[in-house]
Backbone:
């Protein structure tokens, strides 16, 4: 992979140990700015006809402050949380001394557009994030792709991945097909070939299937973890993790604790029904253990903090957790308070930075 | 011992003919409607559909006569009570009148050919899930028969069960002291995931424990237990190992957005622990980590679990893991006292 240029880091006096990596930051390119960056043909298309897919917040309104941190709205009539790099620096990177922060744009988590527009939207979002990444050395990017058109998605990965500040590819937790489907394998192959993990992020396209619509945001929010359980089950059963041994999956903003009982259920079912899923050659819990990471926010909070540590032990998850704040959403997790007090110091260090550095190949020391 | 999930089903539509009107007999005859045994949910040859012993027994694996049940389950296990779940209603179609007629026929069949034959038998009342009014009418027709201990609601339906449209059912059940029994599977027209139907049976099978969590969250969030403070809900054939993780998240999310659901006055986990119980099969416990299984069971609490043979279904060796992990007191709770309290059944004659 000779085409990858390793970024030259400016020499500084003394490197600092990396102590905090935020694996889930949400930048927002406002609708107005997005339109301004599109070619005329697609800008006019969106202005005239809009988009077909609903936005989940339209039918499950967040109960207060539209779902964002109260202080995250930039000044001015067009200000929107996550749209201002200066505010993000001040409220997140500087405030908490973040060494690296990963930009996970949710702007294309519904890719339900004609192929040319889907590809343009991905390009615009990635180019815009790139401006932030170039301006702010602590930021790293997740490549947004037009995933329903895998050949276009692969082209976008190839276009971006020439720089190592793009550290993963991001997909939603629900697409037109289940995420283990062969339709998406070219994306997984392209990411794995470049050493990029694939993040599956909650709050994707949510077709009217399964048990029908709940009535309240509370239900929709808890259901984020249920939806990821179905998707992880599918990814494991389809055998994509075994077919592409280098593939690493990061389940983002969907919780962690459910994975232990899900892995047990999968093992139980696999022992009885494995002849039905010949591509799944290994015990599902081992496959998950080998290939799957989890971001912390919104981390489950048991009454007894020791239950949290026990859960990590049951699921062998101690080196699979990646700290995330979810800035600028209302349920932002502060690195000082999010992890239960029962988490021992060494493990805390791993969750806050060490595991992410290892997964993403980030240097353990950085020049401030 | 109280067995909280035993299956029975008519072997054919002919068995139900005495309980159907001429109109429905002709309708079913003309349409060629048969009882197929829920082949999507329980493919006859799938290892999970029947234990080896049930497979070897003469006739269908799911008992279709009292004699078969007596020989295979009642004589073998000698339960104090066994609760019959007839899932044939899941084979009904969208036609609301047909579904209501089939539900009534199944209940009359259950009464005449099962409950009247043995004092140990109890049953879930079969109701339509297409039209809640029809479900209410059936509860009013038969819900005072004390041998019906709960109303059977399969989990694959049109809307999460907390939805207002279903509150009529809970009102009618609560008035008669009937529990609600949510059971795995349901109508074949409902995809189990947000990305539709699964390609494999394994994923379909494992969707039940995920879908049931949606209903638990819905019933609490949409205020069912505030309106009906005495209502009890059993979760059957949907596992239980998922409970602690769900409650940790549900409580946390409620703390953040409780303003949206002001009728949820206590922590969600308080409602779930007070109003719900789950049957033991499948148990989905780790077969190679008995200590983890024991720690999980302690976190759940043995009073939350109701023993079920789930005859004739076979969920593998983790039933033994559960059995081995329980001490004497916990075993007694799981095998009988939890169910006796939940279903208000006398354990002494």
Residues:
């Amino acid at each position: 992979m000779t085409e990858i240029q390793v970024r030259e880091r400016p020499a500084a006096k003394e490197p600092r140990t990396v102590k905090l990596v935020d694996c889930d930051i949400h930048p927002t390119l406002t609708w107005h700015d997005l339109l301004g960056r599109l070619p005329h043909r697609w800008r006019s298309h969106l202005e005239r006809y809009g988009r077909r897919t609903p936005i989940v917040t339209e039918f499950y309104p967040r109960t207060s402050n539209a779902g964002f941190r109260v202080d995250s709205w930039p000044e001015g009539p067009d200000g929107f949380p996550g749209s201002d790099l200066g505010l993000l620096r001040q409220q997140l990177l500087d405030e908490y001394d973040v060494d690296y922060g990963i930009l996970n744009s949710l702007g294309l988590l519904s890719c339900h557009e004609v192929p040319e527009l889907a590809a343009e939207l991905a390009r615009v979002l990635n180019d815009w994030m790139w401006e932030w990444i170039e301006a702010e050395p602590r930021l790293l990017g997740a490549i947004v792709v037009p995933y329903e058109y895998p050949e276009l998605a692969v082209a976008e990965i190839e276009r971006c991945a020439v720089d190592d500040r793009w550290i993963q590819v991001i997909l939603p937790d629900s697409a037109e097909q289940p995420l283990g489907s062969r339709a998406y394998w070219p994306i997984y192959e392209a990411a794995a070939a470049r050493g990029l993990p694939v993040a599956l992020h909650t709050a994707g396209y949510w077709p009217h299937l399964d048990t029908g619509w709940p009535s309240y945001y509370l239900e929709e929010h808890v259901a984020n973890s249920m939806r990821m359980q179905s998707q992880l089950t599918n990814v494991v059963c389809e055998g994509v993790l075994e077919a592409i041994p280098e593939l690493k999956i990061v389940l983002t903003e969907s919780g962690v604790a459910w994975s232990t009982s899900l892995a047990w259920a999968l093992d139980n079912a696999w022992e009885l029904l494995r002849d039905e899923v010949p591509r799944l050659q290994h015990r599902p819990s081992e496959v998950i253990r080998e290939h799957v990471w989890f971001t912390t926010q919104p981390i489950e909070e048991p009454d007894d903090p020791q239950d949290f540590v026990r859960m990590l032990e049951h699921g062998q998850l101690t080196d699979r957790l990646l700290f995330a704040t979810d800035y600028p959403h209302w349920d932002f997790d502060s690195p000082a308070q999010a992890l239960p007090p029962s988490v021992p110091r060494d493990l805390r260090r791993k969750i806050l930075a060490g595991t992410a550095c290892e997964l993403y190949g980030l240097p353990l020391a950085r020049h401030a | 011992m109280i067995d909280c999930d035993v299956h029975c089903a008519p072997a054919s539509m002919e068995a139900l003919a005495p309980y159907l009107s001429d109109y429905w007999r002709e309708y079913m005859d003309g349409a060629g409607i048969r009882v197929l045994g829920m082949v999507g949910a329980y493919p006859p040859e799938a290892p999970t559909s029947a234990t080896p012993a049930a497979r070897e027994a003469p006739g269908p694996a799911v008992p279709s006569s009292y004699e078969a049940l007596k020989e295979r389950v009642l004589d073998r296990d000698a339960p104090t009570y066994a609760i019959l779940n007839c899932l044939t209603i899941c084979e009904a179609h969208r036609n609301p009148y047909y579904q209501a007629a089939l539900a009534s026929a199944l209940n009359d069949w259950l009464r005449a050919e099962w409950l009247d034959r043995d004092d140990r038998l109890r049953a879930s009342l079969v109701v339509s899930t297409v039209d809640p009014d029809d479900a209410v009418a059936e509860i009013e027709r038969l819900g005072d028969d004390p041998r019906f201990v709960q109303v059977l609601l399969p989990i694959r339906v049109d809307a999460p069960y907390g939805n207002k449209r279903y509150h009529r059912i809970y009102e009618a059940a609560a008035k008669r002291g009937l529990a609600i029994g949510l059971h795995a599977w349901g109508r074949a027209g409902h995809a189990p995931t947000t990305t539709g139907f699964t390609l494999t049976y394994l994923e379909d099978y494992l969707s039940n424990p995920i879908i049931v969590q949606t209903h638990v969250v819905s019933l609490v969030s949409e205020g069912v237990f505030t309106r009906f403070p005495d209502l009890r809900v059993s979760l059957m054939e949907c596992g239980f190992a998922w409970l602690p993780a769900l409650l940790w998240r549900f409580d946390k999310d409620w703390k953040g957005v409780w303003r949206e659901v002001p009728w949820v006055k206590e922590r969600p986990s308080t409602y779930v622990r007070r109003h719900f119980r789950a049957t033991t099969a499948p148990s989905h416990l780790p077969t190679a980590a008995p200590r983890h299984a024991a720690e999980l069971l302690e976190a759940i609490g043995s009073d939350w679990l109701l023993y079920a043979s789930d005859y004739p279904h076979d969920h593998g060796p983790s039933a033994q893991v559960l059995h081995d992990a329980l001490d004497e007191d916990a075993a007694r709770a799981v095998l009988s006292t939890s169910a006796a309290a939940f279903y208000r059944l006398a354990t002494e004659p």
User: Anything to note?
Assistant: The radius of gyration of chain A is 20 Å. The first strand of chain A starts at residue 15 and ends at 17.
